Amino acid sequence: MQGQQITGLHKPETVAEALAALSDLGGGGTVMAGATWIMRAPFRREPMKPAYVSLAQIPELHRIAFTQAHVRIGSAVTHAQLVRELQAIPELGGLVSAAGDSANPAVRQAATVGGNLCTADFAAADLVPALLCQDAEVEILTMEGRQFLSLDAFLGLRERLERAYLLVSVLVPRRPLASAHARLPLRKAGDYPVAIVSVAVERRPDGHMRGAAIAVGSVEAVARRWRGLERAVAGLPLDASRIHQLALDLADEFVGRDGPEVPGWYRVKVLPTLVRRAFATLQQH
Ligand SMILES: Cc1cc2nc3c(=O)[nH]c(=O)nc-3n(C[C@H](O)[C@H](O)[C@H](O)COP(=O)(O)OP(=O)(O)OC[C@H]3O[C@@H](n4cnc5c(N)ncnc54)[C@H](O)[C@@H]3O)c2cc1C
């Protein structure tokens, strides 16, 4: 951080105070959640902001609440907390696995759901595909008011949102699903994954799939649903080998992003294997 100075760390105790601080700072400040992305700015050759608005002391952002319709996850809930508090909820197995396998134990104690979803340049974020295939919504607060957006829509416009915005919570609908998460880290635990596949499946009484949501992360710049494969597998038996074959046929729907760790074609090449792994996990249950 040589030559870069943070002049202000604001520690509001309510969401309204946080928003007011962000608004006052204008372009001179931004949100700080777990800081696991922010602290690596110098490695990415990005400048630090002069000021940050910490979410650490806003209790409502650190809570997970359950209603009949939703699981509401406060934006400052950490990956470790997700694992602790959601591991008994069968339909969220994929999200728990995404949170529990990402990064390393120390980072998981700090990194938050909000940071994962709001970091526009982080293609390899694990929670994004896991929440995309749950049809999650996000609650966004700006000086103009509160709005709820599908996660998909939020990902499309997060870079264009005005600076003074706060992701307050993530709403995950409660449905009778089974879900799983498969990722390919390149070398060792803690590396960003080369490719990610998250799936959520609703089964019919005969065991066939009523529908499957399949989301792909880290392959392209922004995670997205694999609609072609979703259409192809709807109504089929939950058979990982058969779905793997379909994934091989349809993988050219993706254009992989080149990166320092691997070329783009490699990310696409490993996708069908991850699809097979994710569905095989569901087959075992
Ligand atoms: C070595 C290492 C390896 C990692 N590997 C992985 C991995 O494999 N998979 C994975 O998913 N994660 C991984 N992470 C963690 C990753 O950095 C976080 O998941 C996430 O991207 C940042 O979360 P954070 O809470 O630390 O956010 P911060 O660093 O505090 O903030 C990141 C950005 O989001 C904005 N922001 C944060 N919260 C909000 C909010 N509520 N509203 C509006 N804007 C907000 C900030 O202003 C900032 O621009 C890794 C981290 C490290 C250090």
Automatic annotation (TrEMBL):
It holds the Pfam family FAD_binding_5. It comes from Bradyrhizobium oligotrophicum S58. Transmembrane segments: none annotated. The keyword Oxidoreductase applies. Residues 1-177 form the FAD-binding PCMH-type domain. Gene3D superfamilies: 3.30.465.10, CO dehydrogenase flavoprotein, C-terminal domain. The keyword Aminoacyl-tRNA synthetase does not apply. GO terms for molecular function: FAD binding; oxidoreductase activity. SUPFAM superfamilies: CO dehydrogenase flavoprotein C-terminal domain-like, FAD-binding/transporter-associated domain-like. Keywords: FAD, Flavoprotein, Oxidoreductase. This is FAD-binding molybdopterin dehydrogenase protein. It comes from the Bacteria.
